[in-house]
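User: Before I run my own analysis I want an independent prediction to cross-check against. Here's the chain; please return only the structure tokens and, at the end, one sentence I can use as a sanity check.
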Amino acid sequence: MEGRSIKINAPSSKKITLKVIPGHFATAHSHVNLYIDLNTTRTRLSQASEVAHAMSKQYVNSVVVDTIVCLDKCDVIGAFLAQELTAAGIRSMNAHQTMYIVSPEFNTNGQMMFSDDNQRAIYNKRVLLLVASATTGDTIRRSLECIRYYGGTVIGISAIFSAVEEVEGMNVNTIFRKKDLPDYQSYNINECPLCKSGQRLEAIVNGYGYLRL
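Assistant: Structure tokens:
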């Protein structure tokens, strides 16, 4: 599978690259014809730093950010992003004038939740949501619902890749968009033309990686 990978440079910076693999893959909410490999982008120091630098330019110094909530193993990017935003003059209303970087947990039903010791980083805080990728926006919607449940206010959404422009009226600020990927398509699970043509699923993919079938 990896032998078919294609490298793509970000429109905003040639220092940011991601790999895509053509095929037939299942996400939690759709089928897609490209697997987007974000592991290097999230875990390599130079890549994570560049992504955070690019993301920080999407916010102006009139924004207040208290907490960055990281999904899909984006904690390294989240830490760099907090540093970039602080250097750019973004303020935090926290007592120590610094930002929290936290990740949610998931219970056995797949519901997002925050442990007791992390809830103080959400309650009455202005939250920036950071995700690796968004295909249908469903994960972002569930994240918004969860953050609001714990008393937080989402002031921005950032992604490395997003196929959706906005979720619940909020813009998704992203490094890569659908138009940047070669022939990227996302299909309703019950209407997938790849399934109808008999092309077998190769892997189940999510924000953490893939599992071959």
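Sanity check: The chain has one domain: 2-212.
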